[in-house]
Amino acid sequence: MSNAVTAIEEEPKDSIDLTRVLEKAHSSTTVPGSSTACIIAITNQGIQAINLGDSGFIVIRDGCTLCRSPVQQHDFNFSYQLQSGNSSDLPNAAQVFKVPVASGDVIVAGTDGLFDNLYNNDITAVVVHATRAGLEPQVTAQKIAALARQRAQDKNRPTPFSTAAQDAGYRYYGGKLDDITVVVSYVTAFGNS
């Protein structure tokens, strides 16, 4: 992602091409390993996002899910991933989104550790409570991550991961321990001014 930051800084401020950013970031990466990717830019037209794999984002408006990036996977629990070299998915497999946003909207981005353990309505409930309580975005992100971790450790509660596992023919119940990263942004003002 540090390569993505460098690529974004090279883009014209008024027309960031996230596909080009992801391609540059991928081609500049030489360290071993693989990763999903989710890049979101807030522009005067709303948000632009590019997502590859099972990390992603959700946009919440007035307590409802406005948009949610779908999971990209080859098969159950086998998500699209980028890695240096020739044996990975390519940046052009990523999905690109343009979503109009308004003041009061909340954008939640996260890794699969978030989306495997919390349903959209779980995330939305935390966001609604946090915004009503006047909590800052970072505190909201910490609360969402804490709930995801709690659900990841719960062997008795259905989760998006357990539902997907059962749909794929596996006997699985409860959460999935995994990395959990959450970033929350509040849209506070919007327009061309």
Automatic annotation (TrEMBL):
Record organism: Aegilops tauschii subsp. strangulata
Enzyme class: hydrolase
Entries under SUPFAM superfamilies matching the protein: PP2C-like
InterPro entries membership: PPM-type-like_dom_sf, PPM-type_phosphatase-like_dom, PPTC7
Protein origin, superkingdom: Eukaryota
Catalytic activity field: O-phospho-L-seryl-[protein] + H2O = L-seryl-[protein] + phosphate; O-phospho-L-threonyl-[protein] + H2O = L-threonyl-[protein] + phosphate
EC number: 3.1.3.16
Domain PPM-type phosphatase residues, every copy: 1-187
Taxonomic lineage: Eukaryota, Viridiplantae, Streptophyta, Embryophyta, Tracheophyta
Protein name: Protein phosphatase
GO molecular function (one): protein serine/threonine phosphatase activity
Family under the similarity heading: Belongs to the PP2C family.
Cofactor section: Mg(2+); Mn(2+)
Keyword line: Hydrolase, Magnesium, Manganese, Metal-binding, Protein phosphatase
